[in-house]
Amino acid sequence: MYNIGLIKTERPDILINPVSCPTEISVYDWIKRFFNPEDFTLEIAITQEAIKELLGTNNIGRININGYEVALLLRETETIQEATTRYIHLTPRSADNLDFEKVVGLEILD
Q: Do 17 and 77 form a contact (C-beta atoms < 8 A)?
């Protein structure tokens, strides 16, 4: 099982709106929906092979989002749990659609 979530780059220990994905392909599908062409322009295309290769390493995957102090974090659930101190859940616009501006404007208090 894999987890994907957003982090504020100044607080990478807090995962925002984590999503569980059972397979590498479901991770890729989620990322593809998240980085839809209406909201984002990618400098480098994200491919199934790249996601599979990333998840096959011992590193936590981090996809920075240019122009924002926000990034995606992805890895096996246990590894993400060890690397983070807590999860924050914001209300999404729909099951697959998080209001990105809520994350950008989120102030995280200790």
A: no
Q: What is the pLDDT of residue 7?
A: 92
Record the pTM.
Answer: 0.78
Using CA atoms, how far apart are residues 110 and 95, in angstroms rounded to an integer? Answer: 28
**Concatenated DSSP letters of 9-47:** TTEEEEEEEEEEESSHHHHHHHHHHHT-TTT---SS---
50-54, 63-67, 85-89, 93-97: range with lowest mean pLDDT: 93-97
Give the residue, 88 or 13, on which the prediction is more confident. Answer: 13
Block residue for tokens 């590498």: 24
Distance CA 63, CA 9 (A): 11
Evaluate whether 94 touches 23 at the Cβ level (below 8 Å).
Answer: no
Structure tokens at 10: 């100044």
